[in-house]
Fold this sequence. Notes:
3-stranded mixed beta sheet; alpha+beta; 3-stranded antiparallel beta sheet; globular
Amino acid sequence: MKHLLIAGLLCSILISWKFDPVELEKKEILEGKVEILLPKHFGIMPEEMLLLKYPSANRPTLVYSDENGTVNIAFNLTASRASQQQLESYKRFLFLLLNLHFPLPNGKEMASKRSMEEKWDI
């Protein structure tokens, strides 16, 4: 069974917190092993931009980006496997981490762990 990659969710959350709502579309990536929701206006980063943004030899194998390359979602297919339970743990951790660094859009103080879990169904 294919899993929705957490990174796509995180990106869409960050974008929706800081900007107008973004229309998402489902894409299959990494040899069809992953389904992800990405902003419709994102495309695969051109090789020239990829080399500038990620000069290291071990750069990501796939990067989706906005037109200017300012917002990126990078992927690497590795031999490491993750169980559904591990993915849920990662999801919970990343949502709580984001909540610490990016307050909710209404400008109020950061949400409690409980309200974040309810809001994002984690």
